[in-house]
Amino acid sequence: VVPSVAMRPLLMIPGPIEISPAVQAAFGGPPTSHVAPDFIERCGRSLERMRAVWAASSDSQPFILAGSGTIAMEMGACNVVGPGDRVLLVNTGFFSDRMATMLRRRGATVDEVTAPVGHAPSLDAVRQALEGGDYRALFATHVDTSTGVRADAEGLARLANERELISVFDGVCATGAERFEMEAWGADVYLTASQKAIGLPAGLALLVMSPRALRAREALAQPPPMALDVQEWTPIMRAYEERRPSYFSTPATNLVSALDVGLGEILETEHRGHEGIEARWSLHAAAADAMRAALSSLGLSLLPEANLAANTLSAVRYPKGVDASLVGAIKAAGVVVAGGLHPACKAEYFRVGHMGHSATQREHLLRTIEALGSALAGCIAGVDGDAAALAAGAVLDGRQ
Ligand code: PMP
Questions:
Q1: 351 C-alpha to ligand 1 centroid (Å)
Q2: Which of 24, 114, 202, 319 holds its CA 20 to 30 A away from the CA of 89?
Q3: Hey, which of 68, 103, 172, 311 would you mutate to test ligand 1's pocket, going by the most ligand atoms within 8 Å of its Cβ?
């Protein structure tokens, strides 16, 4: 028996996140054969729905694999870059560092454009760096979960596209929540995992590749590992979309069934006159604004520069005199949030996720603010959690 969210701590870390009852029901269904007609239908429809959520072109290729976000990163990297290639990486934190390590292990030469923690390199700095080298690809993290910094994905994708460079974006903490227009911006690889704004349990690596990215794989002298090779996977994904049985490696069938439902929920979203993925982006912006209104009412400030703060999470500095024990106090008040992650300053801040299902649930957002307010009130005199919840409510109602 699964305890209802009223009976257990609410999971408000930046992934894994709370999932909707319909997604949970699909995930908890009986196992199925990967070639059963109803499974083929769910998988084929999920692939079609991914293109809509990724705002990707009809000739782009979606992939669904059993795996984590790190597997999606590996698949995105090793299919477009080979030993000896030179790439430029826009570094905004912990997960950009991971991508740099991965690319170096693949034998690539990685040049990095960096910025202080909480900031992002300017487009001018990236443009200048691109002029200085003969690059095959540009890599960036859309939202770096370690700092809550959102990169200018549109600007970066367009810069790369103008130069006919492959662009690869790690959207693990962004896809389905932050605006990303794969086709319009000319991006080549956009990857994520199931446990964040897509709204599933962990276990699926999800990515969409442009025709140019698939051609880059064909041109590689040294193929990627077989299990991650898009040349193995493309015929399988096409077969599912054409509703034909096929097999290369067994899919995570229950997760794929949940994916069909989760992507369906994303595309059914309506918000402030918007529909579909546009509505989902708008809803996450409103949830983030509401959380920021509450944080500022509580006297708290963010780690990232204000105009770079992501809509999927808030990285919040501990106020003076408060330390990481606040995370435990918030949990005691019924909500699980995460500590800091960036090695340079992880003791200085904590992180609150507000993406996917919870971004659609006013009660989840307000419960989080109330728990934060009551935990802070135990450390600082005069903290008013009710005022913070009212400030958030006003934003959610569109009154502010
Ligand atoms: N990239 C980003 C931006 C992430 O937030 C994460 C996970 N927090 C990853 C990659 C790695 O994903 P996973 O933990 O599922 O391997």
A1: 14
A2: 202
A3: 172
